[in-house]
Amino acid sequence: MVTRLVQSYPVITSVKAGLGTTTLTRDVNWKNFQPRVGFAWRPLGNNKTVLRGGGGFYYAYEASNQLGLRQVLYAPFALIETFLSPPGNNPYVTFANPFPGVGDLPSSPSILGMPRRFPNPRSIQWNITVEREVLPNTSVRVSYVGDQDHYAASEYDLNVPRTFGPGTVQALRPFQPWGEIRWIDPRGNAHVHQLQIGSTRRSGDLMYQIEYQFTSAITDGAGVAQGWGDTGGVDWPYNSARNRGPEDGIVKHLLVANWVYNLPFGKGRRLLSNIPAAANYILGGWQVTGISTMRTGTPFHVSYSSPLVGFPVSGRADVISDWRVSNPGVNGWFNPAAFRAPAPFTLGNVGRNSMWAPGFWNFDMGFMKNLRFREHYDVQFRGEFFNIFNHPNPSGPNANLSVSSTFGKTTSFSAARVILFGLKFAF
Q1: pTM
Q2: Could you give the CA distance from residue 401 to residue 202 in angstroms, rounded to a whole number?
Q3: H-helix or E-strand spanning residue 172
Q4: To the nearest whole number, what is the mean pLDDT of the chain?
């Protein structure tokens, strides 16, 4: 079998580069002005309090595979034609005739394209931070971080039927005889606002770092394959307001802490510093470490699979009442009776990523015993406990209305507790 890439025209324009001629498949944007500004100020005239801030414009050329590989291979339009090999074992592909026989190009081929005037994805970022040393070697920090993204590459089917009804999908497509037209468009937008509160201690018996984040991230589906019934929830690519919602995978609240604590027992310590050497081998030299993570859930929405010909294979469902329940759990994270399949050949009204999955919390801890012999040899015994409380964190519930047996229920959980022991000898 031989495959041939058929392009409508391979070269859009050329520009003179320093070392030769470069062939381009979209116009070059020479106006990507990227100013940056930043400052640091000690408002109280000492080294304990500092105010920092900054901002700037950022551009990404060929920021993804869509703008890199695809603009070289497929621009401005391309389709693939396959030639089947003839029967027998004799070679049939030659330089004189690399595509023998008749290809099997479908009657309604799918193509991929992108506009010639494609602005580079742009990000406007800014931040401001106040940091204060509240105790020796202990600081507290509060930050606000903002980001706006524009012209993100979004891929969708340009040949989606504008109206749905009985019949095959192909008969309803507006551009005939083409099938799916995967179009890469600079239409994606995102807005992110984040509050960060942190504290750090870097010396002493107790060292720690604590970080809390509150994040609001809203997009219109930027960065996901925008199509008709895609799993990303962008079920109608011609109305960006309909697709506006929380960004996939982003949680609202996140708290992470890690610490190392040297227990104050044994020789040279605050407590039991005069114990005998034999007792010090047992009581002295202990360390406790830990990492804790607590966060809220990620956004999702209820979808369904349509059995109708001439309608999306999947899309968002209809919400008809309050989906919240008083005691959400693994057997019912939301009220299943609050959702139904939309009327035939219509789109559902539930918002994209308008619901939130269960949260997550986990504690990992380690206990280490350090011993020294003759000032040249060190031995460390350590025990590490991952998910020390063996807490089962549920995954997101099944949100496909078409799978009635598990609809609204959780069927998988995070890993159970794991315990590891180790012995290290250093000389």
Answers
A1: 0.80
A2: 51
A3: helix 169-172
A4: 82
